[in-house]
Amino acid sequence: MAYEIPVTQARAELADLINRVVYGAERVVVTRHGKPLVALVSAADLERLEKLDAVGEERVISSVSGVHGVAAASASASGSGERQRFGIAAETRGSGAT
């Protein structure tokens, strides 16, 4: 659980808050009007958060790439089937297509 402190009080006690985070292994949430504004966490906690973000981004990219490959294969297969069904021998492509 994080220790919450109003921003006005945090300003006056910054050195003590830093010590709580570094040496007491606490997390401090600075609030304004009772709502969380920022958090003070140790450098080790920040490093772990950044690693989690990187892993999450890699999973999203991998998932999107996989979906794109399946969608492209499906579109290609259904496109050729539709052309055969309607007796279309050629197709028009935009100037950017290869």
Question: How far apart are the termini?
Answer: 57 Å
Number of domains: 2
Kindly report the spatial arrangement of strands forming the biggest sheet.
1-2-3
Order of helices and strands: EHHEEH
Q: What structural class do helix, strand and pairing data support?
A: alpha+beta
In percent, how helical is the residue content?
55-70%
Shape: rod-shaped
Q: Taking Cα atoms only, what radius of gyration do you get, to the nearest Å?
A: 27 Å
Number of strands: 3
Biggest sheet, in brief? 3 strands, mixed
Structure annotation, total helices: 3
In short:
The chain contains 3 helices and 3 strands. With 98 residues, the chain is of the alpha+beta class.
Question: What is the topology?
Answer:
Elements: E1 3-6, H1 7-12, H2 14-24, E2 28-32, E3 35-40, H3 43-85
Parallel strand pairs: 1-2
Antiparallel strand pairs: 2-3
Overall description:
With 98 residues, this protein is α+β, with helices and mostly antiparallel strands. The chain folds into two domains: 3-41, YefM-like fold (3-Layer(aba) Sandwich); 44-85. It contains three helices and three strands, in the order E-H-H-E-E-H. The protein has helices spanning 7-12, 14-24, 43-85, and strands spanning 3-6, 28-32, 35-40. It has a three-stranded mixed sheet. The chain is rod-shaped. The mean pLDDT is 78.
